[in-house]
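Incident log entry.

Two folding requests arrived from the same account within the same minute. Monitoring flagged them as a possible duplicate submission, but the sequences differ. Recording both here for audit purposes.

Request one:
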Amino acid sequence: MLRKFLVTSMALALTLCFVAPQTSAEAAERRFVSIAAGWVTGAYYPMAGAISRIAFNNLKDENIKVTAESSGASVANANLIASGNTDFAILQNDIAYHAYHGKKGMFEEPVKNLRGVAVLYPEHIQCIVRDDSGIESMEDLKGKRVAVGPIGSGTTENVKQIISAWDMTLDDFKAEQLQARQASDYLKDGRIDAAFFTVAVGAAAIKDIATVVDIEVLNITGPNAQKLLEEVPFYTQQPVPAGSYPSQDEDAQTISVMAMLSARADLDQDIVYKLMKAMYENIDKIHSAHAKFKNVSVDKAMDGMTIPLHPGAEKYLKEVGVVD
């Protein structure tokens, strides 16, 4: 009996010695990376989803697994990078700059492990008002019920900066910190009069409002807007073309920032390089994921880049001639 037990034990030990190294090696090769992507109803999430699908189809042999994760948008995404709780993040280029330099009141300390990967597309700061709200100008927002984006979002920071050009603060109207879907629902049933969205033109959350009530895209233009553009170099004047939403009969002029892909500084250079290569070599898959993504191009990957590049991104962009 004792001999049988010893033989069995030795056989089991030999089996474990044989199997364990192989399992460990397989686990070491498997590389899981995440992309913090913002609201499910915004454009960040379909962008991250498109990137993850491209990675699934093109990086199988590299054993790189990419997942898109919803989050609290730009400021929250920068903090996720800072804490090491995500590998990639999509955020606004102005928020990336403020994060890297540690803007007081927005970040407790500089997010020095934040690196740029690629600038993606313009994001319009759209103030959507109910047609029956009586709001025709920025000044008319005073005293009104206005959604300004969720806590920790780039939208809220954009609103603060924009209204400051009109000598206003959030205290000048009844500010509501709402997610995009909540803001959409509140506008539809009249619980608020206006809502700011920093999203691509044609966003589902705004289209959803326009299918229920008549809306207008408020013009953010004139001398005050020009002053803002001169003081804040990340902003540009951009149109929201007529017909972008049901009942929108005329172009609206507004302010835009740029959406960009970022990464942790210590993320493996090889992963960043291979993800970018797969993404841009399958750019048609990005273009088809959302109407706004038709503007995404490797030639524009550095337009509006506000923070240092990740070495993996720099390697790829040098390879394709975008960076010297």
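Request two (distinct sequence, not a duplicate):
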Amino acid sequence: MVTVLGIRDKVSVISMNNVHIDDESMQAVLDVLKSGQLAQGPKVEEFEKAFADYIGTNYAIAVNSGTAAIHVGLLAAGIAEGDEVITTPFSFISTANCCLFCGAVPVFVDINKETFDIAPHLIEKKISPKTKAIIIVHLYGQPCDMDEILEICKKHDLVLIEDACQAHGAEYNGQKVGSFGIGCFSFYPTKNMTTGEGGMITTNDEDIARKARMIRHHGQSQRYVNDLLGYNFRMTDIAAALGICQLKNLDAANAKRIINASYLSRHISQIEGIIPPYIALNRKHVFHQYTIQITEDYKLSRDELQQQLFIRNIGSAIYYPAPIHKQPLYRGLGYNGSLPVSEAVATRVLSLPVHPGLADTELEMIIEALHGT
């Protein structure tokens, strides 16, 4: 029995996320602990090879977070002080912060109102002689418009960084995201697969891979030979052991997310005032988040609906309540322009549970709650 705001409810809590760690995963971690090789070692190398094979790239470089992956990817591509990097304002703040880490300047481009991904038709308007790269975000697990973006990068000789931290296994025209440019993945516990904390850089460029490996390990080309400024961004063998097992189960977990999302969308499409997620053509959306929009035609405001879900013990979350350019940090840096689609979407979005651990009865409860029944 759970009491919320004085209301007793017999329904178990339906969580936003459910980290599934099976017996094989626990045994794999235990084996590493018994081996005594806890830091970066053979398991990291094994995980890197398996992940590169899965994404379809020549190289994968493991690091200790998705943020580190983006940071290292930018540095390995040569992004430096004063360079401009075009990116989206509608993402987790680390997407843009990694530009600041390099001394570069994030330049924000508004998003597509349906997919929430960066709008390609607006990118060229923001390109200047200082523009050196584009960071796209495959937000919530939906791939960006890759054909248009690749054409822009080729035309203007720009480095493409794919923030695929929410899009493990997502595809555009049958090709996995993270294989179009420099891919950056996160393995935080809420992601479609996890290593506890961790990240991965994917690339087909041998030089990028070589530099990334050096940067993650104090700039070393060999033991105690430091060729450039680097960091301690290494992944542990403990994390990698978990990642190897999680990767084996990723496609099955994604398939269940897609089934759950399909069920939710089929029923939500019948509710006035709620817009289910839009899936663009030629995409495999892997639903890291299942994100609806609450319009003025719905009987409750977005915040009122979230409160009602809370009372019913159903998890929900807002990703993201404010675009990056509206964050105090960026206002302090002089960002005061208007990006109307991002700003409007931030007031309407609400993410619902979609994880593979949901039972059919729990999906039904979510729909009943949205109906108010």
